[in-house]
Specification:
0% strand, mainly alpha, 193 residues, 8 helices
């Protein structure tokens, strides 16, 4: 139980996939303008991460048993793409407003390197199935946390006249993201695995 808590704290705060590992930057910058879409994207990514881990961990063991573990990346991408299509169909059917708000960024979860990264890291770190699921959940929650915090920051930046003209728009967003990343670096050393 302590190991699970350590994994959660590690991937949410210390090794946050966006702010420390710089994985999943595209949706982080693209969907964080509004809180509701940022939360929706964070929940969708978390769901896909956990689901992808639940499927890819046994698939990796199957690949290893046949001696074709080198196909890991290709197979994982196919699994993740299938799962994202499933999530997109479910959102379109049951939560059409969120489906519309996420727009083009929802299919981009397929190419979100954070999802592929967590599935590969689970194997590389030698996690058990349960530890892999906890790692995926924690990574997704860290993604969600970063999205929510950055969405709040961007709402304060939107229409702010105190920002010099040269920094308005994308430049101030990138500077703000880097400052948020530096703030999360303060958690380094909190947990070591």
């Amino acid at each position: 139980m302590v190991k699970f808590l350590m994994i959660l704290l590690s991937v949410i705060l210390v090794n946050n996939c966006i702010l420390a590992q710089f994985l999943g930057i595209c949706p982080f910058l693209g969907v964080s303008k509004k809180l509701d879409s940022a939360v929706g994207m964070g929940v969708a990514v978390t769901f896909v991460m956990v689901l992808a881990t639940a499927v890819t961990w046994p698939v990796q063991n199957l690949l290893n048993s046949f001696g074709i573990g080198y196909l890991q990346t290709v197979v994982f991408i196919l699994v993740i793409a299938s799962l994202v299509q499933l999530v997109e169909m479910l959102l379109k059917k049951f939560i059409p407003s969120l489906h519309k708000a996420l727009g083009v960024y929802l299919p981009l979860i397929t190419t979100n390197c954070a999802v592929l990264g967590v599935t590969i890291n689970n194997i590389d770190y030698g996690y058990t199935y349960a530890e892999s699921l906890v790692n995926a959940l924690g990574t997704g929650l860290g993604f969600l946390l970063a999205m929510i915090i950055f969405s709040g920051m961007r709402s304060k930046l939107e229409g702010n006249t105190a920002i010099p003209k040269a920094f308005q728009g994308v430049p101030i967003v990138l500077v703000s993201a880097s400052i948020l990343s530096l703030a999360f670096m303060g958690f380094s050393g909190l947990v070591t695995l």
